[in-house]
Amino acid sequence: MSGALLAISDLHVAHQENRDIVERLRPHSADDWLLVAGDVGELVADIEWALRLLSQRFAKVVWAPGNHELWTPSKDPVQLRGEQRYRHLVELCRQLGVSTPEDPYPVWQGETTAVTVAPLFVLYDYSFLPSGATTKEQALAQAYSEGIVCADEFLLHPDPYPTRDEWCRHRLAVTEQRLAERDPTLPTVLVNHFPLVRHPTEVLRYPVFAQWCGTEHTADWHLRFDAAAVVYGHLHIPRTTWQDGVRFEEVSVGYPREWRRRATRPGQLRQILPAPRG
Ligand SMILES: [Fe+2]
Ligand SMILES: [Fe+2]
Predict the structure, then answer these.
(1) Is residue 278 part of a domain?
(2) Angle at 202 between CA 201 and CA 203, to 5 degrees
(3) pLDDT of 71-94, one tens digit each?
(4) What total number of domains does the chain contain?
(5) What is the number of the ligand closest to the CA of 192?
(6) Cα–Cα 20 to 30 A to 70, which of 10, 111, 144, 193?
(7) Number of C-beta neighbours around residue 173 at 10 A
(8) What is the 111 CA–ligand 1 centroid distance (Å)?
(9) Peptide bond before 160: cis, by omega within 30 degrees of 0?
């Protein structure tokens, strides 16, 4: 008996109503896996609460960090920054039995197919430039002049790297190596907080925000690494799109003010595999 591969992201459990949603999350069958594509919360204690609860309910939980997990909020007793904060969360996940981008990629075995499930942490590098900009500096200047600046600029510290884009370059190299070393006979499900391709950011309300949403360097990863599906969040625009015949699933819950406006009930788990019919 094999269960399903289900996914969700952007739980943002600092909001009580989102915490209530997490409390209600249940697998559809005892064998289901859950892919959590980042932005669980900001405080380490909140992240631990949510991942512990989910790890007790699902046969396996796989986590990729979002930008919010990497913030260092002044009110968090854990004041680790950057890489050290990420490593601290990885250790926490390991204690809970949750797979992270630093662990061997687990293989999900379905009735008819097996896939390598690869949680990724590649961040962003400001290369999704707004029109009119040709450099990161111009992109940032444009964002500041429009008053649309991601809070990461103040809260997501890249230590020990000088910049977030330097950290991203390092993560790209490490991640490419890991993916190249996977079992080449199996397709993959790639789980990353940010979309691996730029296309989904084209519907952003504020196009200048795209610079905090990914990197051009992953544009062909869904093909290069034989993805059966790509799971991401961050945009808070849940939907399914297709790129080169590959299914991209934006699985975010988002903030209460966002999900209240949607026609669908918040916190429904998206089935990644077996691929839903139609
Ligand atoms: Fe988010
Ligand atoms: Fe995010």
Answers:
(1) no
(2) 90
(3) 999 999 999 999 999 999 999 999
(4) 1
(5) 2
(6) 144
(7) 12
(8) 33
(9) yes
